[in-house]
Design a protein that fits this description.
The structure is a single chain. Helices cover 69% and strands 0% of the residues. It is an all-alpha fold. The chain has a single domain, classed as Cd81 Antigen, Extracellular Domain, Chain: A (Orthogonal Bundle). The radius of gyration is 25 Å and the shape is rod-shaped. Keywords: Glycoprotein, Membrane, Signal, Transmembrane, Transmembrane helix.
Length: 160
């Protein structure tokens, strides 16, 4: 049992170190994937389009760097900026969303990349604290399992 807990502890420790070391690559990959999701955004309900809509609605953002990122997409030429960027769904008309200057007061202008990464970085201290707490419990479990094993081994030879 102690060896199993030690193995799990080492796996978690390696995952944390790898996540810390490669955090910049994670950001870069997230940005490129968000750009791809915008480029391939469509009206049909695929996972990537739903994820973009959810991020934009939840974080009150639009595009990767800002709302004008949508201008480079095929979706913009057909329908304009998606409705998930609208500040108020009642105030967003499709003809306004096809013109960036008319859309600016009606949509969120901030990009989603900065908001997502800053939100993740602000929550990292909570994640690190919880991980540290779990690691302490695992270490206590490892120590107690070793003590129990030692106790059982010592008592086995004292029986008469």
């Amino acid at each position: 049992y102690a060896m199993l807990l030690s193995l799990i502890f080492l796996i978690v420790l390696v995952a944390a170190v790898v996540g810390f070391v490669f955090r910049h690559e994670i950001k870069t990959n997230f940005e490129s994937n968000l750009n791809l999701a915008l480029r391939d955004y469509n009206v049909t309900a695929d996972r990537h389009s739903e994820a973009v809509d959810t991020i934009q609605r939840t974080l009150h953002c639009c595009g990767v760097q800002n709302y004008s990122d949508w201008e480079k997409t095929e979706y913009f030429t057909q329908r304009g900026i998606p409705r998930s960027c609208c500040k108020s769904q009642d105030d967003c008309l499709e003809e306004d969303l096809k013109d960036l200057s008319k859309a600016k007061p009606k949509v969120f202008v901030d990009g989603c990349f900065f908001l997502v990464t800053s939100m993740m970085e602000s929550k990292m201290s909570v994640v690190a604290g919880i991980s540290f707490g779990i690691a302490c419990f695992q270490l206590v479990g490892i120590i107690l399992a070793c003590c129990l094993s030692q106790y059982i081994t010592n008592n086995q030879y004292e029986m008469v």
